[in-house]
Specification:
Layout lengths: L3 E4 L5 H12 L3 E6 L2 H14 L4 E5 L5 H9 L10 E4 L15 H29 L2 E6 L12 H21 L4 E8 L2 E2 L2 H5 L4 H7 L6 E2 H12 L9 E4 L14
Helix pairs in contact: 1-8, 3-4, 4-5
The chain binds NADPH dihydro-nicotinamide-adenine-dinucleotide phosphate and 2-hydroxyethylsulfonic acid.
């Protein structure tokens, strides 16, 4: 086996791009997400293009029992996880708090915060056993700033920012690195999900400027993962050149 990376949310966007990037630099991969068909397609592409082994985990990170059951039942050779990319996440809606849709809030909190915690709780003891590992959390500019209608999504990403700092302290005695990569606007399925399938609205988000692409974030994740053993990148904030803050974007 090569080094092993476990990527959550590998069925689309940033996670899928990370899978390709990490396979290209020699990782074997545990790829996970809810959409089995997408995992099958990605597996076929990875096996065709790279010299890697793939383990697919069809998994909803919100399902606590499934997360622990599936990770505990990984074949022994796949439990030697060197890199965990906690990427699965979503925004739903841009509604002011007073009009908030409770189900949307729960989807975001359950996925972005609780799901990330379940995965980390299940994987980190495997790293501690081997006294090595690296956890990279995909946070966001929304974990550092807030914007109108961003309330709960921003809160979940602020939580991930805090959890990253807390995890880094907890993992310190165990030789496990903890990093975060915080992107600005990246054109993926993110806005289609946020606007519940309204592709016109989603397209408008990226109109008139060049956003980041999933590959840009995968490059950054690979950079963070490939620093020498004595170097940890705590946090990287990466923005499109046309974006200065959560609210400042220059459009044509
Ligand atoms: P996409 O919508 O393209 O991808 C999201 C991924 O998360 C999919 O693979 C999806 O898989 C997975 N996912 C969502 N819910 C669950 C769940 N309950 N269980 C398991 N997997 C789940 O968006 P991005 O690639 O852009 O988003 C990836 C991460 O990057 C997210 O955490 C997002 O918050 C963050 N981010 C995105 C930015 C952007 O502008 N795009 C900017 C900053 C951060 P499936 O549906 O198959 O389960
Ligand atoms: C996604 C970027 O600005 O839509 O985290 O919150 S933003």
């Amino acid at each position: 086996m090569n080094r092993i990376a476990f990527i959550t949310g590998a069925t689309a966007g940033i996670g899928e791009a990370c899978a390709k990037k990490l396979a290209n630099v020699g990782y074997d991969l545990i790829i996970s997400g809810r959409r089995e068909e997408n995992l099958n397609k990605l597996e076929a592409e990875l096996l065709k293009n790279f010299n890697c082994k793939i383990f697919k985990l069809v998994l909803d990170v919100r399902k606590q029992d499934d997360v622990f059951d599936r990770i505990n039942k990984l074949p022994e050779e796949w439990k030697k996880i060197d890199l965990l990319v906690n990427n699965a996440g979503l925004a739903v809606g841009v509604t002011a708090i007073q009009d908030g849709i409770i189900d949307d809030w729960e989807r975001m909190i359950d996925t972005n915060v609780k799901g990330l915690l379940y995965i980390t709780r299940a994987v980190s003891p495997l790293m501690i056993e081997r006294k090595q590992g690296h956890i990279i959390n995909v946070t966001s500019i929304a974990g550092k700033e807030v914007y109108p209608g961003g309330n709960v999504y921003c809160a979940t990403k602020h939580a991930v920012d805090a959890l990253t700092k807390g995890m880094r302290i907890d993992m310190l005695p165990h030789n496990i690195k903890v990093s975060s990569v915080a992107p600005g606007m990246v054109e993926t399925e993110f806005s289609i999900v946020r606007f519940k399938g309204d592709t016109d609205k989603a397209d408008q988000v990226y109109n008139g400027f060049t956003p980041l692409y999933a590959d840009d974030i995968a490059d950054t994740v690979e950079f963070v993962a490939s620093r020498p053993a004595h170097v940890n990148i705590n946090d990287i904030l990466i923005m499109p050149t046309a974006q200065a803050s959560a609210r400042d974007v220059v459009r044509d």
